[in-house]
Prior knowledge:
Blueprint: H1 3-34, E1 55-57, E2 68-70, E3 76-77, E4 82-92, E5 97-105, H2 109-114, E6 117-129, E7 132-142, E8 157-159
Antiparallel strand pairs: 1-2, 3-4, 4-5, 5-6, 6-7, 7-8
Amino acid sequence: MNRSTSLIRRHKTAIGAGLACVAALGTFATATGANAATAPAHTAGVAQTDNTPYVMNHVGEENADKGKAERSPERLVLSEFTSVGDLNWKQWDTKKAVATGKVTGMWCGQACLDKPLKGTLTLSDPKTVNGKKVFSSFTLKLAGGSGAYDSEDLQGKHPLATI
């Protein structure tokens, strides 16, 4: 197989994975939305001020392209491959935000949709974008370690979408 064919195949695979992720996120968002009326508060004890950064969230079809500036969201899209839900925010201040929640991603396929993995999310590196302070990085750690999951989103700090 020549190099250009291999590159085209990888691009098609990535696009297919992205589309599958969008479908999975839609399913996840619908299921989570149906349970929202009975969900516990997800911001217990987290105080925020005018200087507290936002996070650009791409949850939902209406926010997929440009995102929505939110503080302490219940669900958050981290990348095209990973999202977290049922977030319980322990901290949200001017330097960082920390929550525990349920992690899903294309890297664990149907297993995550059936039984999301527990993890800790840290948002950091606030910067000003279009006059609004937003977190620009995330770190995600699974409760039991990344184990068999070979996913870039589980290894170190990664950029968040800021627009």
